[in-house]
Design brief:
The protein has six helices and seven strands. The chain starts with a helix and ends with a strand. By secondary structure, it is an alpha/beta fold. The chain is globular. The chain has a single domain (3-205), classed as Rossmann fold, CATH 3.40.50. The relative contact order is 0.15. Strands 3-2-1-4-5-7-6 form a seven-stranded mixed beta sheet, sandwiched between helices. Helix 4 links the parallel strand 4 (102-108) and strand 5 (128-139).
């Protein structure tokens, strides 16, 4: 196993879990995750940090996460829920569910790392029922042109150490291009380095 493979497989999952436990991330989860209803698909469930924030009213959670070490971190959290959790060890582009089979899709800090976000979003749209909602919290390109140029310059190096994370994507544009109607959108900097913390949070719906 090469050094890069060792890092991605054995070191990166622990770093991601630690980073996503930041207080700013917890505050966003508190606002967004309880809005999920019915059958829920979470894209990039990671170490399961969203699981405690889901309402007891949801019917079932499909937790899609391709990294086995992150799934193992998430599994203990799933044992304490009043709803069923089914882990799907697949990438965001490979959603295995049937058309129009879920009520809510959740993506938090995930669209930045998916290699083919348009394909993944098309899959999310496909599995949502008509009128179903996509809940999202994502970081991405800052509106300041100077800062945006630095995001462009640094994205290649950053993605190598951050699991493919891209600093300069526009999640709102990607979501709209997939056919979703964006119902609400909040943007702004959270605490931390501005290169990393311009956030897009909102609700989009399948027509």
């Amino acid at each position: 196993m090469g050094l890069r493979d060792h890092y991605d497989r054995h070191v990166l999952p622990h770093l991601l879990d630690l980073a996503m436990r930041a207080p700013m991330a917890s505050r966003e989860r508190e606002q967004v995750i309880p809005q999920a209803q019915g059958a829920v698909l979470e894209i990039g469930a990671g170490s399961g940090l969203n699981i405690p924030y889901y309402s007891a009213d949801i019917d079932k959670l499909y937790a899609l996460e391709p990294h086995d070490k992150l799934v193992r971190k998430a599994e203990p959290k799933a044992k304490n829920t009043p709803f069923e959790v089914e882990f799907l060890s697949l990438k965001g582009e490979d959603i295995p569910l049937e058309d129009a089979s879920v009520d809510t899709v959740v993506t938090t800090w995930t669209l930045c790392t998916i290699p083919d976000p348009p394909k993944a979003l098309q899959g999310m749209y496909r599995v949502l029922k008509p009128g179903g909602k996509l809940l999202f919290v994502e970081h991405g390109r800052a509106p300041d042109e100077h800062l945006g140029r630095w995001q462009d310059r640094l994205t290649g190096a950053w993605s190598c150490i951050a699991g493919g994370c891209q600093l300069n994507r526009r999640p709102d544009d990607l979501i709209a291009a997939a056919g979703f109607d964006i119902e609400s959108l909040e943007t702004g900097y959270l605490e931390g380095p501005k290169l990393l913390t311009y956030h897009y949070k909102g609700v989009a719906r399948r027509a």
